[in-house]
């Protein structure tokens, strides 16, 4: 296949990879002169008509998707037995390879990637297309860190009258939604489940569910909750873990309603005020909800269709046993004898309780209330606690975005609680805002990163500009550098942005010698090329006689300026000779133009190089001008359609 031209347009350059239905090659579009990726249906499947139809149907459904975060489909067609589609070629790596190299990813980077994916999936869903097989292997990353979803080859357009058949497609089991695992219909929320699994993998470097077989993994998707990502990464805010929990809810009804809503949630997920939000918990099943009950079967002995309520069975009361008068009198005497003892016991018990309470109040420890010292500097807080009659216990530090460094976040026991005097109060003191890893913004467009920069909450963001070889608007440098641990609220971020390649006005080089030209090339950044030497009566030999482009032209650094040097005044006299020559028009086809090339060998021309080229449609007379040095000669040769029709050498006379 390498070297083959498909449909006379796409030259296959190399193998990129393969899947269950197709093989992907790198190729060049010979018309548009650009690299492309070509997906070709496997030969052993091309004979099956149903598969061919499916291949073309799914390819055509994806051609409507034009989005920055979706790999574009350019063309779909056939060449003999080859069935192919032509896609945008993204030079870089898959997200799976990136995760294997970099995981676990910083939260900000993972959120950035996930927002791009949600943006692309949202566009696909708006076109009625569900991906069904979202996984890091189907996500490509270019050199600027932008991601693009590919392989909508198993995605099929939804319509109002037809939904996906139960067994038409099967996604990769590690990222499969529960409804797909049980063979149900894949919906837009199925894609969101897969996105949640991808986000978990980016943050931990692991898959949430693993097993010895695809079946065991699918069962875990069905029956086990997604493990909390904070068990692996305690530094992850609860708000970000909630995104995963909501996206991967077992019941699709509890997931995000759309990729657009998920994208909106991600846009604020790293905000400090959301860091400790309540953990997302899907509503528990309602046991009292109305349920479909089985029909009551006919009761034995009743005719079918009889809906009367049967009469209740009569109840028979059991009469009490008779009691004699003597027995009744003895029972009353026993009750009268118990009353004095019960009354005396109650009085004694009340007295004992009263004495005990009195003794505890007089001789027991005094109570002290823990003062509210939240937000106060540690030294001041400890002084207030001691003044309240309490002692200082343990002191620990904890990062907090809300409490100033060195101040108290909380106490244990808590403020307002009553405790014995001398009780130790533990303090949790703020270590300030938690440092985060700064994203590397270099190589990315400045306008595209503004939202991510804002989410960090920097103390200040300063933009500087300078000329560079990078495209205009590209971040070429940042301070602090990407990967450094910083506290955003205490950090000024400086982004240096490219203004593009600087253009410089060319200098007048008339009269410059070669040393001066070399110095100008060094300081200006231009390339200087000497193209010829010509005689001149006014310019000293070895100095610039003319330049191209002319002085004052705006050029980018690295551009070339051509110069002609003077040979000085000619020592020998030069004679100009003009020869008139008629070139006959003799076409092979009536009315066809004939190409004429004139070659001149004299002081100003070389006989090997064309001096003039033109076309004729009739007999044409041409005046040929030649300069001949004394004692020398000049030659001209005229070719018509590559054949010599006139040639002559003229001596100096």
Automatic annotation (TrEMBL):
EC number: 2.7.11.1
Enzyme class: transferase
Annotated localization: Spore membrane
Broad class of the protein's primary localization: membrane
Positions of ATP binding: 39
SMART domains (UniProt xref): PASTA, S_TKc
Domain of life assignment: Bacteria
Region (Disordered): 271-336, 395-421, 463-484
Catalysed reaction, written as an equation: L-threonyl-[protein] + ATP = O-phospho-L-threonyl-[protein] + ADP + H(+); L-seryl-[protein] + ATP = O-phospho-L-seryl-[protein] + ADP + H(+)
Record's bilayer topology term: Single-pass type II membrane protein
Record's compositionally biased regions (Basic and acidic residues): 396-407
Protein name as annotated: Serine/threonine-protein kinase PrkC
Lineage: Bacteria, Bacillati, Bacillota, Bacilli, Bacillales
